């Protein structure tokens, strides 16, 4: 991660623009972009520190990453 916009982020920007063109009742300020690239790695580290088995880590990794993304969103709303 070198603070550049990657190909997927550019695709997301394109989809957002298409969405806004289709639904004029929304504006760009209502779209919140969250950088979630590191959430899976953070979730994995949390589960390792909790001494969970690999099987349980695999089971809970995605839901914990989703929780972290939600927390990032909620924190962004506090500002």
UniProtKB/TrEMBL annotation:
GO terms for molecular function: hydrolase activity. One of its GO terms (biological process) is rRNA processing. The keyword Hydrolase applies. Keywords: Hydrolase. InterPro entries: RNaseH-like_sf, YqgF, YqgF/RNaseH-like_dom_sf. The keyword Cell wall biogenesis/degradation does not apply. It holds the Pfam family RuvX. This is Pre-16S rRNA nuclease. Its EC number is 3.1.-.-.
């Amino acid at each position: 991660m070198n603070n550049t916009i990657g190909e997927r982020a550019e695709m997301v920007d394109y989809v957002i623009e298409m969405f806004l063109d289709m639904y004029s009742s929304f504006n760009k300020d209502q779209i919140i972009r969250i950088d979630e690239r590191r959430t899976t790695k953070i979730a994995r580290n949390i589960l390792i520190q909790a001494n969970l088995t690999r099987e349980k880590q695999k089971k809970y990794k995605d839901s914990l990453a989703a929780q972290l993304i939600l927390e990032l969103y909620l924190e962004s709303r506090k500002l």
